[in-house]
Amino acid sequence: PSNTTILVPADARESLNMGELQQGWQKVLSAYINFETTTASEIQARLQSGEFQMLVMPMSPQNADVETLLGAFRSDSPQNYTGYRSVVYDNLLREAAAQSTAERAAEKYA
Questions:
Q1: Residues with Cβ < 8 Å from 71, sequence gap 6 or more?
Q2: How many CA atoms lie within 13 A of 56 on its CB side?
Q3: Once rounded to an integer, what is the mean pLDDT over residues 11-23?
């Protein structure tokens, strides 16, 4: 039996794919993972309190640009709920933002 549970919003399309993901992890990794579907507000509350092992949370940037979406994972971002920290990643985002054209910025993001 697994002691690992992934929280999934019940009303999100991600919940539809969890069975396939669960089977894949079991087959390929021999990992037995439980899924718990709950409301998006409950997931948000548990995210803020840190009371979870893993979770799936849909993300939507406030603006429709790559910098806003990827910026959520910068070390100093208040939206970096994962706690991801990487000086290399932070520097790449800064370099991309400093480019004079969208094409040059896209090269940095790639």
A1: 77, 79, 93
A2: 21
A3: 77
The answer to whether the CB of 99 falls within 8 A of the CB of 105 is: yes
pLDDT tens string 52-97: 888 887 766 667 678 888 888 899 998 887 788 999 999 999 999 8
Decide if 80 contacts 44 (C-beta within 8 A): no
Q: Which residues of 83-109 are buried (b: 16+ CB within 10 A; e: fewer)?
A: eeeeeeebeebeebeeeeeeeebeeee
pLDDT, mean over the chain:
83
54 beta partners = 6
Euclidean distance between CA atoms 44 and 69, whole angstroms: 18
What does each C-alpha distance from 98 to 32, 89, 95, 104 come to in angstroms? 44, 14, 5, 9
